Amino acid sequence: MEKVISLEEAGKHIKSGMSIMMGGFMQTGGPKSIVEEILRSEIKDITLIANDTSFMDRDKGKLIVNKRVKKAIVSHIGLNPETGRQMREGEIEVILTPQGTLVEKIRAGGAGLGGILTPTGIGTVVEEGKQIIEIEGNRFILETALKADLAIIYATKADRYGNLSFEGSTRNFNTVMATAADIVIVEADEIIDGALNPNEIVIPGIFVDYIVQGGEI
Does a structural domain hold residue 123? Predict the structure, then answer.
């Protein structure tokens, strides 16, 4: 199967109402071109699973500003005032999750686990409504695994087999999200013919369904 497709073809796999994992940490390692393709469409009512909601004028932050997201499962929203405004006005549901817990919930989803046990949040509002399990006198929150209909992630470099490599901190949440979704679309800065050097590969192509050529936004 040919994995390299156009932005327009990638857009056909994205539907209203989907749960979508989106890589990136603030403005680093986010799929900017695919976000622009979503904004050109009528796609809405997205459940966004991400580290954050970025800035108002950057990548996934634009999805918030343009009211394409109905629910956000994230670790922080402080850099995007519009997320906070919509949350206060009841226009969007925001589930704030400690960052380490969020990435572990996604990892568990990709590994086929039911969830994780963590002490993070014990004695705070984080534990409200969740099952608490005691082990050897210590209390842990049972955090259920997270999966999504679709993951839209970034890579610095990809080959046509779907193998991915990253430069610096751009790998962030992209690596775990590639394992935890039914469909994975990658936006790569560079797509090479042939195969990546095995020593470069961070995400093997078996996790990747489609690749699009990224560009400067």
Answer: no
Side chain identity at residue 174, one-letter code: N
Both tokens of 167, joined, read 């430069």
| DSSP category for residue 193 | S
Asked, for residue 134, whether it belongs to a domain, the answer is: no
Q: How many domains does the chain have?
A: 1
Q: Where are the alpha helices (DSSP H) in 45-125?
A: 59-65, 81-88, 99-111
Full-model pTM: 0.94
Q: How far apart are CA 44 and CA 206, in angstroms?
A: 29
Tell me: the pLDDT tens digits for 51-65? 999 999 889 999 999
Lookup result for tokens 């206060």: 88
pLDDT level of residue 2 (50, 70, 90 thresholds): confident
**Torsion over CA: 112, 114, 115, 117 (sign):** negative
Residue 18 resides in a domain: yes
